[in-house]
TrEMBL record:
<dbReference type="GO" id="GO:0043952">
    <property type="term" value="P:protein transport by the Sec complex"/>
</dbReference>
<keyword id="KW-0813">Transport</keyword>
<keyword id="KW-1133">Transmembrane helix</keyword>
<protein>
    <recommendedName>
        <fullName>Protein-export membrane protein SecG</fullName>
    </recommendedName>
</protein>
<dbReference type="GO" id="GO:0065002">
    <property type="term" value="P:intracellular protein transmembrane transport"/>
</dbReference>
<dbReference type="GO" id="GO:0009306">
    <property type="term" value="P:protein secretion"/>
</dbReference>
<comment type="function">
    <text>Involved in protein export. Participates in an early event of protein translocation.</text>
</comment>
<feature type="transmembrane region" description="Helical">
    <location>
        <begin position="51"/>
        <end position="71"/>
    </location>
</feature>
<keyword id="KW-0472">Membrane</keyword>
<dbReference type="Pfam" id="PF03840">
    <property type="entry name" value="SecG"/>
</dbReference>
<keyword id="KW-0811">Translocation</keyword>
<feature type="compositionally biased region" description="Basic and acidic residues">
    <location>
        <begin position="102"/>
        <end position="111"/>
    </location>
</feature>
<keyword id="KW-0653">Protein transport</keyword>
<comment type="similarity">
    <text>Belongs to the SecG family.</text>
</comment>
<keyword id="KW-0812">Transmembrane</keyword>
<dbReference type="GO" id="GO:0015450">
    <property type="term" value="F:protein-transporting ATPase activity"/>
</dbReference>
<dbReference type="InterPro" id="IPR004692">
    <property type="entry name" value="SecG"/>
</dbReference>
Length: 111
């Protein structure tokens, strides 16, 4: 599940990047209004701005939703697959280690 969401996340990110780079700036519409071949576009006489804008919005929405799911899933993990769970364990002292410590005068020595 995590890997599938990660693939969707990366594809949505690449989709947003690609669609933003394909879109033209607002100043480019000025030439199209004076008959610069607006009817020869691939997406029809209406132009590609509506299609590209909607697809960018869809990819951005998918990106944000998947980002929230991945963040929620990664914070609620109980164990990490990258960290050794035994690395943080402490060594417990035994009774032998306690009996080797010299006692002060008048102190009770544990038996």
């Amino acid at each position: 599940m995590f890997e599938t969401l990660l693939v969707i996340y990366l594809l949505a990110a690449l989709g947003v990047i690609g669609l933003v780079l394909i879109q033209q700036g607002k100043g480019a519409d000025m030439g199209a209004s004076f008959g610069a071949g607006a009817s020869n576009t691939v997406f029809g006489a209406g132009g590609s701005s509506n299609f590209l804008t909607r697809m960018t919005a869809v990819c951005a929405t998918v990106f944000i939703v998947v980002c929230l799911f991945l963040g929620n899933m990664s914070t609620h993990k109980t164990e990490s697959q990258w960290v050794d769970p035994t690395a943080g364990q402490t060594i417990q002292k035994t009774d032998d280690a306690v009996s080797e410590i010299p006692a002060e005068k008048g102190a009770d020595i544990p038996q």
